Amino acid sequence: MSIEKDIKQTAFRSPFHRLVVNLMYTNNWVCDHQARLLKPHGITLQQYNVLRILRGQYPNPVKVSDITERMLDKMSNASRLVDKLVAKKLVDRTECPSDRRAVDVVITQKGLDLLKKLDTQQWEDRLKTLSEDEAVHLSQMLDKLRGSED
Amino acid sequence: MSIEKDIKQTAFRSPFHRLVVNLMYTNNWVCDHQARLLKPHGITLQQYNVLRILRGQYPNPVKVSDITERMLDKMSNASRLVDKLVAKKLVDRTECPSDRRAVDVVITQKGLDLLKKLDTQQWEDRLKTLSEDEAVHLSQMLDKLRGSED
DNA sequence: TTACATTTAATGTAAATACACAGATTTACA
DNA sequence: TGTAAATCTGTGTATTTACATTAAATGTAA
């Protein structure tokens, strides 16, 4: 559905205004879908993203501060997110040997298994309204929107 | 900055995966900027969006249920959002005469003045890395991503 | 009219979030 | 060495959110 119809707004002040509204609307659309898939598995979207960061470095540990840096939504307390994942035994948390301030976090086998199961759900198929080339192009335009130079 | 550099992820499983991550990342980028501009004026992004919905219909009232429908992020209790706006005297809330279950909400002059002041801030200028045509195009691609047909 | 389903807004509650700050450790450097 | 600044994680607290439920008003149909 076009956003005009869905949010019943007929006029935007400018193409830039429509773009911003559309961006938020589309983001919510995507997050809703994702959260719905994750819910039966007992994890939130944020926890899922942390797990994927950890898988990306597996079997190396990742410090809480690194997780914070890489999280998409600016930092909603990686500390407490990791708490939740530890409680579910999806990650292990150990004191970093070389820096006792820091904490090493590693995804567990159980965590890897969960991600593997979620991978197969292929929820991104819902985006196949775009061709692969279009997905690349759209992503590049988002980079440009943010003023990304490289 | 490219998301690869910023979130230090080198590989995405597919262009679709990169697109989804980019969408969330860009949305957060935009929301951060907006929230930062709104904060000195004492309103949140959500409250700002409600005010704009109300201005769109001014001077006609809008029911709480209509606000819920039109909000971008699926419903985080329009009732309580309106509460906050009433407390700040940015909107008026009156019982709907024709249906005593419903509540009519109208933006006040103070609310209109605040929006006018915010309009002039032109924060959307930050998006001028894109041309007007590109903004239109990007918006259309987001529509297509969601499978919007019209 | 009565009975019952539906719509609408508000509320209760647990969880998540934002934001500031505290405590421990490391780093920099005089 | 000694001391101040910076770094890293955890916590306190108020607000916001998600989700279910309640309560009132309306619609519907016997």
Automatic annotation (TrEMBL), chains A, B:
PANTHER family: TRANSCRIPTIONAL REGULATOR, MARR FAMILY (PTHR33164), TRANSCRIPTIONAL REPRESSOR MPRA (PTHR33164:SF101). Residues 13-147 form the HTH marR-type domain. Pfam families: MarR_2 (PF12802). This is MarR family transcriptional regulator. Signal peptide: none annotated. InterPro entries: HTH_MarR-typ (IPR000835), MarR/SlyA-like (IPR039422), WH-like_DNA-bd_sf (IPR036388), WH_DNA-bd_sf (IPR036390).
